What we know:
By secondary structure, the protein is of the alpha/beta class. It has helices at residues 25-37, 57-67, 84-92, and strands at 4-11, 14-23, 45-48, 51-55, 77-80. Strands 1, 2, 3, 4 and 5 form a five-stranded mixed β-sheet that branches. The chain is globular and about 35 Å long.
Amino acid sequence: MHDFTLTTTSTAGSVVMAPHGELDYDTLSDIEDALTRLPVSAGPVVLDMTGVSFMDLAGLRLAYLLANEEPVAGRIVMARGWRPQPEKLMRLVDLPRPCGRCAL
Length: 104
């Protein structure tokens, strides 16, 4: 089992979710569950990926959805802060760096 945490911060009209640790098959459901629990009124969601040091194929599936602006757990999600290993994995499969609608 990996050490994985997900911090959720609500601000005026938006939500920032910051996963920390390895994004894999065992931890992806933590993100999906947290997105599902958010009220519709929560506003736009930004995934701050700066804390994700490793990503496997489950994380790649999430990146694919973000790159194609497809819903994740019923929501459009933006992402920022991809680290080198996840970016390398995305390049290996020729997936553009996902940002959803490009969060700043």
